[in-house]
Amino acid sequence: MLPAWLSSADFLAFTLANPEQLPSDLQPLTFQLKNGTDCQIWDTGIICFTPQTYGNNDIVLSCGVHGNETAPIEICAALVQDILLERLQLSERVLFLFGNPPAINAGKRELIDNMNRFFSGAHGISNDRDIDAITDVEISFEKRRCARLEQYVSRFYQAVPAGRERCLYDLHTAIRGSQFEKFAVYPFLHGKPWSEAQFSLLAACDIPCFLLMQTPATTFSYYAAQTHGAHAFTLELGKARPLGENDMSRFAKVADTLRALISGADITTKPFVETDFQLFEVYRAINKQTEAFELCFATSIENFTQLPLGTLLAKDADIEYRVEQPGEAIIFPNANVALGQRAMLMVKPVSIIGQTA
Ligand SMILES: O=C(O)CCC(=O)N[C@@H](CCC(=O)O)C(=O)O
Ligand SMILES: [Zn+2]
User: Fold this and answer.
1) Which among 36, 123, 213, 237 could bridge 118 via Cys, Cβ 3.0 to 4.6 Å?
2) Which residue's CA is the closest to the ligand 1 atom numbered 10?
3) pTM over cut 0.90
4) Does domain 4-272 have CATH number 3.40.630.10?
């Protein structure tokens, strides 16, 4: 039975009404649906579902790590609501995370710190500290939330015996338009093979385009892959628009495939054949070094655009960044980042034949 305070089954609305923490008098935080699914609310925006019988996959679905990336928030909110209303019977354990509720309320990517730059301990909070005792003055809400998300993901994966299949799909949208509307960032695997099953699954989500990272990162997906051995991805779903203004039909295959994944419904996948995909390696990252950093092309230029060799891409005080290689394309250009953070990635097509399993 749903508790009275969640009787509308609108977990997103409840989260946004309590953006920083759960009300202290809330009871119960653990309840069971009539179909036997155990529901636990661990924190604001964090809900863990365990069906009575479940398969071998432990699945984390996250959204709203950037507050203005709303299509993913709508996808996850609809899935959670359908689970709570028993319109969707789970066949796997699932943890949903709505990453940054205050930023979602503000319609902003971040309030103080970009959460997707402070995982894998980059938040600076050691494991033995009580996060609740840390104030905003000392460490921002967003860094504290990163530390908490790490704890929740660890708790979720470690609550069951080892040896099960772990996945984490961190749903985002890009700031600007993209020549490939939907694409995935595959975190650096330190030489491990890229997963053919995951390529096929994400192709079923209508995501045939991948950026293969070549270095460690402080993103959520890299954290899950590296720390927990999860199949983890950042999924980029279209261009950021205000909540309620997304054309959700463009993401129907993502929503339907995720729904099937967590409920054990059939998913039609094709065996991995590299030529069915657009694969890019992230060839270099351009980091903002000074406040003078500026991009030298129009905001209308889309992700994956290839500019002619020698084109001036960005200036940073006396440094000039130009297109260095034929086929290089721009990804995630953003001058409005903190000093030291990446302001653009450069990618080029790559083949990974023989490096998949
Ligand atoms: O469009 C943009 O500039 C950013 C979209 C976005 O938030 N992308 C993620 C990618 C994370 C990764 O590299 O796995 C980010 O920048 O955090
Ligand atoms: Zn994002």
Assistant:
1) 123
2) 234
3) yes
4) yes
- Residue identifier of the C-alpha nearest atom 5 of ligand 1: 174
Cα distances (angstroms) measured from residue 167 to each of 60, 94, 163, 170: 6, 10, 13, 10
Q: How far is the CA of 174 from the centre of ligand 2 (A)?
A: 6
- The residues facing 319 across adjacent strands are 316
Which residue, 167, 206, 207, 215, is CA-closest to 187?
A: 215
228 is in an annotated binding site: no
pLDDT per residue rounded down to tens, the chain (357 residues) = 899 999 999 999 999 999 999 999 998 899 999 999 999 999 999 999 999 999 999 999 999 999 999 999 999 999 999 999 999 999 999 999 999 999 999 999 999 999 999 999 999 999 999 999 999 999 999 999 999 999 999 999 999 999 999 999 999 999 999 999 999 999 999 999 999 999 999 999 999 999 999 999 999 999 999 999 999 999 999 999 999 999 999 999 999 999 999 999 999 999 999 999 999 999 999 999 999 999 999 999 999 999 999 999 999 999 999 999 999 999 999 999 999 999 999 999 999 999 999
Distance 25 CA to ligand 1 centre (A): 37
Annotated catalytic, 274? no
CATH number for the domain whose boundaries are 288-340: 2.40.50
Instruction: Delimit the CATH 3.40.630.10 region(s) of the chain.
Output: 4-272
